Amino acid sequence: SFGLPFDPRPLHSASPHQQTGESAYSGAHFEINRKAMRITISGRGKAERVQRLTKKDGGDELKDVFFYSFKDMRMKQDHQDYPLWVCPNRRIYLESYSPVAQQAKDFLIAIANPVTRPRHIHEYKITSYSLYAASSLGLRFEDILSGLNRLSKNELHDSLINFIHDKTEKAGKVRIVLRRNSYFVESPNKKMLEELLKIEGVADARKPGETEFLVHSDDQRKVAIQGTKDGGMGQMEAMGLKGDMKEDEEENEGSNKPKLDRRVYSFEIMQGKVEQVKEAAKDRDFPTLEEYDYQNDKTTPNLNMNLRAFAQIRPYQERCLAKMFGFGRARSGIIVLPCGAGKTLVGITAAQTIGKSTLVVATTDVAVNQWKKQFEHWTTINDNGEKRVIMFSREHKRAWDTSKAVIVIASYHMLGHGGQREKEAEKIMQLIRKHEWGLIILDEVHVAAAKTFRRCVSETYSRCKLGLTATLVREDKMVDDLHYLVGPKLYEANWLDLQDQGYIACVQCIEVKCRMDPLFYKEYLMQKSMRRRQLLYEMNPSKFNVCEYLIRYHEARGDKILVFSDNRFTLETYARTLLNKFFIHGDTSHTERLVTLDRFQRDDKLNTLFISKIGDNSIDLPDVNVIIQISSHFAARRQEAQRLGRILRPKPVSSSRFNAFFYTLVSSDTTEVKYATKRQRFLVDQGYAYRIVRDEDLIGTDPKKHGLQLSTPAKKASILAKIRAADEMAALEEEEEVGLDRTKQTRRRKGGGKRWGSFGRNVRRRAGNASDMSGGSGVSSLLVAMVVSDWFLLWISAHVGSHLLASIVREKRRTFAREHARARGFVCVRVCAFV
Predict the structure, then answer these.
(1) What is the signed CA dihedral for 444, 448, 453, 455, rounded to 10 degrees?
(2) Distance CA 403, CA 568 (A)
(3) pLDDT, tens only, 456-482
C-alpha cells in the first residue's frame, strides 16, 4: 500500500483496464482509498511493478490501467460540428469521417502520439515527449490550447490544461543554433537565458569576455523546397494552424494591440562544450533544441546539386519537409513514413535543400547501393563528370577531397564496428570523423538506438540529423533514446490515408490457420526443447501444403512472390528439398545476393524467391506483390510491419479492391498462435485488418486432389525423420544482421561459443545432441570440432606443459567415448588424434 502521485477521484473503477494489453496486471487486485489517495495492490509480483509506474511521469502509465469516468465532461452546444473528443486522461479521439478531419490529423500528429488509427475512429495520446516535439516545431502553449479549443467537442479539463502548460513552459524555448560556424544559445525569453546562466555547466561554457546578450529579430523565413508548387507549404499550414495564424495577424493589424515581439536573445558558447551545455540544461528541465542556420553558413563548402525536373514532391512529403525547415533553419528530428511512401526522396530533398556535405547511414551494403542509385536518379549530383557520391562498404573504400562537399553513404556496421580495421578502412573512418557534415541521414533510424550503433551518431560531427523509418518501435523500449540521439518526431503519416490516395498498395492481410498433422503434433507435445518444438510447427506438413498451393496459385496469376522464414533449416528444406526454388540467407555471398535479386526482379520465369530475415529491411523490389510468411521472430511487431512494407510500393489498379497480398501461415494449437497475435498489433493499430481462413478452405481435406508433395504419410514421415536427425542448432534462428550486410559475418544465437580469432584460425564450438545425430533419444553430448594451426599447439605446449596437455586430451577422449557409446548406431570417431 502506498500513496498516489495523482488525484484518484476521477477514476471510475478499481479494476484493471483490460484494453491496455498490460499482462503485468493480470491476476492483480486493486483497491483505491480515494480520500487518503492511497492504493493497495494484492497479487504476487504485481505491487512492485505498479509502484515503479507511480514514479514515472507523474503516474501517467498507472492511470491508463483504470477506467475513467467522463460523465462530467461539458459538451459544446454545437459539438456535432467538431471532430475531437479531448478527454481528461490526455487521450484524444478523432472522428475521421468529419469534414475537417484532415486538418485535425495534421494538428494532432504535431502535438500527440498516435495510439491506434482504424478506419473511422483514431486514438491519440498527449505525452511529455509529444509536447516536447510540438514545442520544437515552434508551437506555444497558446497555439496548442487554441487548436484544441477550435476542434474539440467538449470543454477542456483543467488538469489537461495544467499538464500542457507545465510541459511546454520550458520545452522548446531554448535552442542551440549553429550560425556562421559558431554555436549560440538563444531564446525569445530573456529571463529564461538569465536563469540558464545560473547553472554551473552552462556558465562555464559561455564565451569568455561576453557579458551582454545579443539581440536580433526572428524573421521566420519560408524555405523554398524544389519539386513543390510555389516552394511548398509553410510550417503552420503543415500543422493545420494556417487559419489561426492569419486570424491572429489580422486581429493585431486591425486593433491597437502591440505587434508580436519577434526579438530573440542569445549568447555564444565554446564549440567544444556543446554537449556539456545540453546535459546541464537537461538536468534542470531545460530541454534544448538543435537547429542549423545553413543559409548563413559561409565557411562550409556548398554542394552543387539540384533535383531533376521529373522529381515531384507529394503533399505528405511537403509536410515532412515544411516541419524540418521551419523558419529558415534545418531542424534535427525523425520522420516516420510507411515503406514505399518515398522516405528516400524526402532524405535526398533535405540534402539538396541544405546543400552541404551529407553522410547517409544505411542498414546494408545493398541499401548503400540503392541510396547511391537514388541520388544519381533524382539529382544532378554527377552530371558534371565528378564522382561526388562515395560508398564506404566492405568492397568500396575510396578517399575524397575534404575541401569539397561530397555525399558519403555507409552502413551501420562499417561505422559502428568497434574492433580493429583494415588500413584503408581506418583511413576512411578518420576522414568521416574529421569531416564537418551539414546533414546526417539515418535510414531505418530505429536501428541507431542499439548500443552497437550509437557510435554512428556519437563519433561523427554533424550540424543536423534526420532519421527516417517506417516503424518507430522496438521491443526493448529503447525508442525513447532516439529523442536525444537524433531529435523529436517531426511527422508520422497515416498508412490508410496514403493507401486510399493511391500512394501505397492496397494490401489484404490473411492469416491461414494450419492444422497440426497428428504425427507432428504428437512429437510436438513430447518435446521439451522450445527450439525443437518451434522447428516442428514450422515444418508442419499442413503449412507446407498451403505454402505450395499459394505459390502455384499466384504464379499462375503472374505475381511475384517472396517467402520469408527466419529459420535457415526450414528455409532450405522448403526451397531446395521440396519445391526446388531459389533462396538467399545470411551465408549467401554479397555478389550472389545482388545477382539473385536482380534476376528475380527482371526474369519473368523466376517468380518465387525464399529469403531469411536479411530481407526484412531495405530491399527495393517494386514488382513483388505477394508475401508468404512461414516463420518469424516470435512476437516482433516491427518485423511484421517491415515485411509488409516489401509489397507496399504502388501497384497497378486491379479488378478487385486489393492489388497485394500478405499471408501469415500459423500452426493451430501451438505457441505460434500467441506470437502471431502479438506480431499483428502494430499493423492493426495502423488500421489493417487480418482475414482469418483455415487451411481446409484453401486445399480441402484431401491434399492429394491438388497434387501437393506432402500429401502421403510416407513423405510426412520422411520429413519428421529429417527433423529428428537434425541437431539442436538447426532449430536456432539466424542471428539478425541489420540486413544484407557482409561486414559482420552471420552467426547463430546461443550455443555458438566465443571465437578465438586472435590465434590463427578460429576455434568453432557447436552445442549439439548425439541422439539427434543417431536417432537415439535422451542422450546429450557436446561435439567439439577444432581446427588449430601448428604454431598455436606449440604455444599451448610451451605454456601449460606437454604432460598436462596430454592428460587433458585423454580425459576428453574418454568422456566422448562414454557419451557416444550410449547412442544407438553411433560410431565413435577419434576427435583428438592430433596429440
Answers:
(1) 120
(2) 47
(3) 776 777 888 999 998 887 766 677 777
